[in-house]
Amino acid sequence: MPIESNLSILLVDDNEAGRYVTSSKLKKAGYNVIEAKTGSEALKLSLSKTDLIILDINLPDINGFELCELIKASPKTSYIPILLLTAYHLDDLSKARGLEGGADAYLTQPVDDMVLIATIKSLLRLKEAEAEVRMSALQWQTTFDAAGESIYLTNEDMIVIRCNQSTVDLIGNPISDIIGKHCFELINRTACPVHHDNIKKKEYTVTDIHLNDRIFQLSVSPILDENDNFKGAVHILYDITERKKMEEEIIRSKRIEATGILAGGIAHDFNNLLSIIIANIDLSKMYINNNPDVSEMLSHALKASHRASNLIRKFITLSPGGMPIKKAISAKELIINVINTSLKNSNLKCESFFSDELSTVKMDPGQISQALSNIIDNAKDSMPGVGTITIESNIISTDEIKDKFIVPTNKEKYLSIAIKDTGIGIPPENIDKIFDPYFSTKNTYSQKGLGLGLTLAYSIIKKHDGYIDIESTVGVGTTIKVYLPA
């Protein structure tokens, strides 16, 4: 009575009589039998559906040991179990050669039917178990590679022994150049970010690791054996760039908001006092007759008062109540008006480029003009004497800025305004502070600003649900880009 079905066995034997006897036994047990008389024929047939190979050692074209090694060397057939079945007595050296060549078992003819079938069943069970292990490994590797985070495993010496595809993509090297390296060689090429002793017993975290212009948090978990001995670690790099950007935006916004609340409260009261001062100066000038010295002093006082009044208006714009009153405005016309006003009587060269896609954009014209004017003034201050300001404006898609900012999904297009100068540039250590209240890079007292120009521009752009970005190279110049919903 057949006890198996749908399992195919490749029987390789040049002896027709012996092949017939063995084939009959296998068929009786319920196996499908495929027969081959030579090694070359067996190699071809092994590529078809084959669950097990029974192999004679003496073949006319190639001996069974070599054929076994060829079958096991091919990725397509290496998983097939091989049973060496020969009528010749094998010495220990031959048995060892067969097993080392990839054979999974051997039997000597004549063999009892029960022993033959039992051996075949055992090998097929092992094959099935190995297939499950391979599938489990494949599923694990697929899951491992599908993870968006960079994950790599190290041994007890912190040498990388495995990594996923995200790690390969992040490092930018083939996997062969990553495996075998110390973890610190991958992270910062200088020193290991996690001290070896710190991770032997507990999870360890390192934040603010910079790689490829991104910011990561590294979490390292120890791998311990049953005796709590340290055997390695799992390293996971989480991309926290967006989170850090959001945190920085929140911190900067809160600083500006706090400044605005304080300044706004003072500004309203001070503005009332200033109105009285200006009115009295105007009245005093009416009563001065033929006294040029006093008249000049009053003119200076009036001029300073008007400057103070302009400053008060800036403080009020900074305050939480200074929300924009938006209306549809021609973006090109507004930008041209700002350029003409800001660069009047200036020796600086100005180049402007406008996309044909520019149209009307909803904005507060007064506030946006003030923001752009402040940015241009900042550019002018960085180029004492001569230089070039380049202004470029176009319409861009959300995809072009989503890597830099946390952009709402309901916004599709933005008006981009880039203002570039050829000035002295900003040192890297000052870039993150450039929009902070009262921060100024002007050192001499006569040029010392209050550090509110770019802060005010930042506040206005944020109140328009826009974004502002800065790039600068010392000795080359600075580019400030403004993005407004279009």
CATH topology of the largest domain: Heat Shock Protein 90
H/I helix tally: 14
- Helix/sheet category: alpha/beta
Strand segment tally: 17
How many domain modules?
4
Q: Beta-strand level of the residues, as a percent range?
A: 15-25%
Helix share, percent? 40-55%
End-to-end Cα distance, whole Å, is 80 Å
Kindly state the mean pLDDT as a whole number?
84
Oligomer: single chain
CATH hierarchy, class of the largest domain:
Alpha Beta
| Uncertain parts | 444-448
Major sheet size, sense and barrel closure: 5 strands, parallel
- Rg is 40 Å
CATH architecture of the largest domain: 2-Layer Sandwich
Write out the strand line-up for the largest beta sheet, numbering strands in chain order. 2-1-3-4-5
User: Based on CA inertia axes, which overall geometry fits?
Assistant: rod-shaped
Q: At the fourth CATH level, what is the homologous superfamily of the largest domain?
A: Histidine kinase-like ATPase, C-terminal domain
Question: How are the elements arranged and paired?
Answer:
Layout: E1 8-12, H1 16-28, E2 32-36, H2 39-45, E3 52-55, H3 64-73, E4 82-86, H4 92-100, E5 105-108, H5 113-146, E6 150-155, E7 160-163, H6 165-171, H7 175-178, H8 183-187, E8 204-211, E9 214-224, E10 230-239, H9 241-286, H10 292-318, E11 327-330, H11 331-342, E12 349-354, E13 360-363, H12 365-381, E14 388-397, E15 413-421, H13 428-431, H14 453-463, E16 467-473, E17 477-485
Parallel strand pairs: 1-2, 1-3, 3-4, 4-5, 12-14
Antiparallel strand pairs: 6-7, 6-10, 8-9, 9-10, 11-13, 14-15, 15-17, 16-17
